[in-house]
Design a protein that fits this description.
2 helices, about 20% helix, globular, two-stranded antiparallel sheet, 4 strands, two-stranded antiparallel ribbon, binds zinc ion, alpha+beta
């Protein structure tokens, strides 16, 4: 994992965009990685990267599809 992820965000609302690897105020959760044991972890993408890579915010994905993807 990149050490820069531990840097303090420039703004309180900023999140780390895992795609262009920088802080962004428009980043939202787009992916949840479930691990066999222990807590899963999420990936955030900013508006630009979501459009560029065709990413869908987790909040807009039906729960049924999320459950399916985790199995
Ligand atoms: Zn981005």
């Amino acid at each position: 994992m990149d050490d820069r992820i531990d840097e303090t965000p420039p703004q309180g609302t900023s999140r780390w965009c895992s795609w262009h690897e920088d802080w962004s105020g428009t980043a939202v959760l787009v992916r949840i990685n479930e691990q066999g044991s222990g807590p899963g972890w999420g990936l955030y993408a900013c508006g630009y990267c979501r459009e560029l890579h065709g990413l869908t915010p987790v909040a807009e994905i039906p729960v049924a599809d999320l459950v399916k993807a985790c199995r």
